[in-house]
Known about the structure:
By secondary structure, this protein is of the alpha+beta class. The chain has helices spanning about 20-30, 30-35, 50-65, 70, 115-130, 145-155, 190-195; strands spanning about 15-20, 75-80, 85-90, 100-105, 135-140, 160-165, 170-175.
Amino acid sequence: MGHVTNTDLRSDRLDLVAMTRKLMKTLLRGDRESAQRLVSYRIPEDWPRAIELTLRFRTAIVQRNPEALPLLFRTIVLRADPGVAIGRVGFHGPADVNGMLEIGYEVFPAYRRRGYAREAVLAMFDWAQRDPAVLRFRATVSPGNPASRQLIAGLGFIEVGTQWDEDDGEETVFEHAAGQNWLQLLPAHHRQEGKNLGLESLA
């Protein structure tokens, strides 16, 4: 992401707070007390246990490619209540040789069905595609996750095949070209509020 220097990322209702390398390492040590001092939001109760594999994978990527850090793991924080983390979002790694980025996301159960995942994913797409090397986005979804499949299909992603994941089993692969006006996929009132915040290109 050498062409994208601004790593601050927010949408209408959310701040997407990039996790630092220090925070990743602190969580992996299981030192929640020290980790809490590094952030303004409340560390979710099941971290790091629930995200340990993701953190280990992302940390290994950062060791090889430190510039990829802002892509990899962002905590989704409510702007109206900035102490509350409601999920996480990020890409699985830097863009591959074909300019492909794969998105991953989770919204905690208590905050689902409010459009937060959609809003966070669109913000990530809009921000990432400012790098001209990013040409395409991918999402892989379990057949048993209808909500996620509906979200991705609703963004215009096309099913291109299936794959087997060692942790998650069979997954359907969806892809979409970069360069879209992702803001147009938000509800009209969110689009207007985003413009009022000066976020015309953010979701």
